[in-house]
Design goal:
Number of domains: 2
Helix content: 40-55%
CATH architecture of the largest domain: 3-Layer(aba) Sandwich
Structural class: alpha/beta
Order of helices and strands: HHEEHEEHEHEEHHHHHHHHHHHH
CATH topology of the largest domain: Collagenase (Catalytic Domain)
Number of strands: 7
Strand order of the largest sheet: 3-2-4-7-5
Oligomer: single chain
Shape: globular
Low-confidence stretches: 11-36
Largest sheet: 5 strands, mixed
Mean pLDDT: 90
Distance between the termini: 42 Å
CATH superfamily of the largest domain: Collagenase (Catalytic Domain)
Strand content: 5-15%
Length: 457
């Protein structure tokens, strides 16, 4: 299940809409006449980088991903598709979805070794991806951007079966048909992100782990496309030594040999397998980043996250995420405290393998804070450090946001021509990352207001 993103700018609400600041007239917007004219940009797609992690750690990650649900419930046996996997699109399919699916299937075939292809119709598809209006989906699962369900082929079937055992993953042995539900009225990036995460979980592990920085199997949602670690996990899931119905103990006995074959570099890396996050910490994450709650309640939840992380002696991405959460809750109340929390989050993320995109998210927040406080050159420095990382991670919404922050900072420094060129360059990525012209203009207005605040402060 993909939750709401963490791209919200200078706000305590992770799921808040981007239309947070409105301005009646804005020179930056006036200079970008023809906002809808730049062609929508899209990434060509990259190959995931193999994980730099010990096989001992990966084996523990694999078992925790495979034999536990996000809710904490235990999954008694391994389940997977046995034989070729076919995928069909149905419903109000967005124009970008077929090409995104084709690129993703090619990655599954080349990087994970999966026997997967598109299906001619939904009738015999292993996985059906149905697009429905967001409002319909959220009436059923309010907190999810998109989600995956076993043993159904349509949204109508799911609504009829959702309170029964048929859609319970824990009583499944062999996967035969699975449905994924994705909003039809969303931006191209969310369509792509949902395809990546939900199709991977439809075929592979069902859990998400906050301790994994280099994976989409993580509810922090910093990674938006499947990583090299994720492809290794899927390759392990369909290793010939494993089969549907194996217990955790039976599966564990095969993992050293599987990893020695699939990831020989991991044999020479040291590392200690991390433990599962306690429920108190994950509950605090949900309170800090969920769609409801006051600034005060979010701050308290973020402080609980940090206290628990420190009490457990964590030095991994969970400690960094706790500082990140605290920083987001402090931006309006205490910007200096927010900067300190973000700086510590960034320091930890940069010390971790596979957490470059996380550090880039921190830099975006620091750049926005610098812009709003009149420190244009610092804003440009943070943006310049993050932009190459974000391009490699294929996050168009974050890329456009950083480009717009930098453009606004250039305007503040009197470099109007450079600012206009960069702002126009950002629009194609903004259309992919935010969707409609209304949403693009809202993000531009928000960032322009931060620049105005910095110049007038």
């Amino acid at each position: 299940m993909r939750l709401c993103p963490v791209i919200a700018l200078l706000t305590a609400a992770a799921c808040a809409p981007v239309q947070q600041v409105q301005v009646s007239k804005n020179t930056a917007l006036d200079n970008s006449a023809g906002l809808s004219r730049p062609a929508i940009q899209a990434f060509a797609g990259t190959t995931g980088t193999p994980p730099l992690k010990s096989n001992t750690e990966i084996a523990k990650d694999f078992l925790d991903l495979e034999f536990r649900m996000e809710s904490g419930r235990t999954i008694p046996v391994l389940s997977r598709f046995e034989g070729p996997i076919t995928v069909a699109l149905t419903g109000d399919v967005p124009a970008t979805a077929p090409a995104e699916l084709a690129r993703l299937i090619q990655r599954f075939r080349s990087e994970a070794g999966l026997d997967i292809s598109t299906a001619a119709s939904t009738a015999n598809a292993s996985v059906t991806i149905e697009f429905r209006p967001r409002a319909q989906l959220q009436r059923v699962v309010p907190t999810a951007a998109c989600f995956v369900v076993p043993r159904v082929r349509s949204f109508a079937e799911y609504k009829a079966a959702r309170n029964g055992p048929a859609v319970d993953w824990t009583n499944m042995t062999t996967r035969q048909n699975v449905a994924i539900f994705v909003p039809s009225d969303t931006n191209p990036q969310e369509v792509r992100d949902c395809l990546h995460e939900e199709l991977a979980q439809a075929m592979g592990p069902l859990n998400d782990l906050y301790r994994l920085p280099d994976s989409v199997f993580n509810d922090d949602n910093f990674n938006t496309v499947l990583t090299g670690f994720d492809m290794l996990i899927l390759r392990m899931h369909y290793a010939p030594e494993l089969y549907s119905g194996m217990t955790e103990a039976e599966t564990a006995r095969h993992l050293p040999a599987i990893l020695a074959r699939l990831n020989p570099a991991g044999a020479g890396i040291g590392g200690t397998a991390a433990q599962l996050s306690p429920r108190a910490w994950t509950t605090s994450v949900e309170a800090a980043f969920g769609p409801r709650g006051s600034v005060g309640s979010r701050t308290s939840a973020a402080q609980r996250m940090l206290s628990i992380a420190k009490a457990h002696g964590w030095r991994d991405s969970r400690l960094a995420f706790s500082y990140y959460a605290l920083g987001r809750t402090q931006v309006a109340r205490d910007p200096q405290a927010a900067v300190a929390a973000f700086a510590e989050a960034g320091r930890i993320y940069r010390s971790l393998s596979g957490a470059h995109i996380h550090a880039a998210h921190v830099d975006m927040q620091l750049a926005a804070l610098a812009l709003s406080s009149g420190q244009a050159e610092q804003a440009i420095g943070f943006a310049d450090r993050a932009i190459p990382v974000v391009q490699r991670a294929e996050n168009a919404a974050l890329l456009a946001t950083l480009m717009l922050i930098k453009a606004e900072a250039l305007d503040s420094l009197g470099q109007a021509a450079e600012a206009k060129a960069l702002r126009l360059d950002s629009l194609g990525w903004a259309r992919y990352g935010f969707g409609s012209e209304q949403h693009v203009r809202a993000r531009m207005s928000e960032i322009a207001a931060l620049g105005a605040r910095g110049r007038n402060g």
